[in-house]
Amino acid sequence: QKEVEQNSGPLSVPEGAIASLNCTYSDRVSQSFFWYRQYSGKSPELIMSIYSNGDKEDGRFTAQLNKASQYVSLLIRDSQPSDSATYLCAVKFTGGGNKLTFGTGTQLKVEL
Amino acid sequence: DAGVIQSPRHEVTEMGQEVTLRCKPISGHNSLFWYRQTMMRGLELLIYFNNNVPIDDSGMPEDRFSAKMPNASFSTLKIQPSEPRDSAVYFCASSRSGTDDNEQFFGPGTRLTVL
Fold first, then answer.
1. Each residue's pLDDT tens digit, A85-109
2. How far is residue B7's CA from residue B19's CA, in Å, rounded to a whole number?
3. How far apart are CA B88 and CA A37, in angstroms?
4. Residues in chain B within 8 Å Cβ distance of A42
5. Number of CB pairs < 8 Å for A and B?
6. Do A97 and B55 touch (CB under 8 A)?
7. Inter-chain contact B55–A98, Cβ cutoff 8 Å?
8. What's the longest Cα–Cα distance across chain A?
9. What is the rounded average pLDDT for all residues in chain A?
């Protein structure tokens, strides 16, 4: 069973701090990794993708991938109240065709 | 460019009625995905199509659910007969397969309530 696991939270951080969101997955043979943000009552929105080991930065967001340890993380620098949402990790497993397997999401709350 | 379009946005129906959800993928995308999201089970893939052909329907809960993609710009998800446990938000997503990234983009969803 190929699984993607996330801590459901809520993760509370003060405004301006770094929020760190983590995701582990069960299969070493995985191709692509994605982070989606979902506001309450809205659809998931793609914010980051990463395909190789290391860090990938985009504005205040940094995705980190470690395939040997089977984890992917998302760092949000200078967290803002508007970052408060649920963050979904998704993995495209090799041999799974084009489908993504999603984690259950981590709720982030950025407090004033 | 328009994103993924879904209709209706909200549907309230009574148990036993037929429900049809519609999706128009992003132009140029050749993979289409139907998901269901509930508090209890999270985001679940129901079925996906590549080039209008169903590839994986292992997530379809039972025979009451069916999906079609008659052409590259339209897909339907049908529930017949509907039951209260089908109440959920149904998302359609699309992507361009055959590329390394395969990023999926979601529509706004249809919130289904079965009474």
1. 999 999 998 877 888 999 999 999 9
2. 11
3. 19
4. 108
5. 50
6. yes
7. yes
8. 44
9. 93
